[in-house]
Specification:
The protein is 37% helix and 14% strand. It is α/β, with parallel strands linked by helices.
């Protein structure tokens, strides 16, 4: 099943999916560009739905303004399924002392948000968002990933990974898969378009993980010219069934409905037609529909507890 903010659904119910985005997101790293306007979020999702979108995965993790209480209403109003996240981002996204105050109970927090609810709501997360470092894993990244692996084993939830400038994904798999026994089919490697190395991407795909490319995002627009080429390389090498695509809208300015765009709808109004033209309808269907449903599908264990 796939865990959405309105409850669990069968994978075939997910439909056309933006596999990595943000409706709400607050971080000191992007001052003045907070995504915290409920009306703007609703307008963006409505525009996505009008373009044929049926599901959005919000990768905003614990402590960064997810507004979980608002997500069910947006989903109901638009007919778009929303998957929320637990987990933790890189330390610099949080105020001083925040991470230290919860470091000993990260796995417990993740499991609770996956199986009971986020904050005081009954909205449950459907994946665990974590973050690596630049080309390697620092102490914070390793701490969070170990907690995420515990939560995965307790619940079955998939793990989605932010990679700093798209790097260090090999180190992530070394830890999560090789050492901590998380199945590679439960690991989504994000931001790979920010490190457009065909050979690296092939090596990651060989290890069985999901490869997530995101864009365009104003914060990382320099990678956009390589997006289609990166996808084409993977398709040519036989990895079309491991590819995911998301918009990763991280700033108010990047919204289509209330900012300068291109926003979430761009995935379907511009990128999907290009992918269809150049890579074929079958590949487009895999990237936007079949693959997200498989990547988010989990055998949920709601009675799971974190190992002592």
């Amino acid at each position: 099943m796939i865990r959405t903010v309105l409850g669990d659904i069968a994978p075939e119910q997910l439909g056309v999916c933006d596999a990595h985005d943000h409706l709400f997101f607050r971080t000191a790293m992007l001052p003045g560009q907070e995504l915290d306007d409920a009306d703007a979020a609703l307008a963006e999702v409505r525009a996505f739905a009008a373009a044929g979108g049926q599901a959005i995965v919000q990768w905003t993790p614990h402590g960064l303004g997810r507004r979980a209480d608002l997500l069910p209403g947006i989903s109901t109003s638009t007919g778009v399924s929303i998957v929320a996240a637990t987990g933790l981002h890189r330390a610099e996204h949080y105020p001083p002392g925040f991470v230290e105050s919860i470091r000993d109970r990260l796995a417990e927090i993740f499991v609770t948000e996956l199986t009971v609810g986020i904050g005081n709501s009954s909205v449950r997360a459907g994946l665990i968002k974590v973050a690596g470092g630049f080309h390697l894993l620092d102490a914070h990244a390793e701490l969070v990933m170990r907690a995420a692996a515990e939560a995965h084993h307790a619940t079955g939830a998939p793990i989605a990974v932010h990679h700093e400038h798209g790097s260090g994904a090999d180190a992530v798999l070394d830890l999560l898969v090789d050492e901590l026994a998380v199945p590679p089919s439960s690991v989504i490697l994000g931001h790979l378009n920010r490190f457009p190395d065909h050979y690296v991407h092939g090596e990651l795909a060989d290890r069985g993980a999901w490869l997530a490319f995101d864009g365009p995002s104003r914060a990382n627009h320099a990678t956009d010219p390589w997006l289609l080429e990166s996808l084409s390389w993977m398709v040519d090498d036989g990895y079309a069934d491991q590819l995911l695509l998301g918009g990763d809208t991280t700033t108010a300015r990047a919204r289509a409905a209330t900012g300068e765009g291109p926003g979430i709808p761009y995935l379907l109004t511009h990128l999907r037609p290009r992918i269809t033209r150049h890579l074929g309808q079958e590949v487009a269907d895999a990237i936007f529909t079949t693959n997200p449903a498989r990547a988010l599908d989990a055998e949920w264990r709601d009675g799971g507890t974190v190992p002592a």
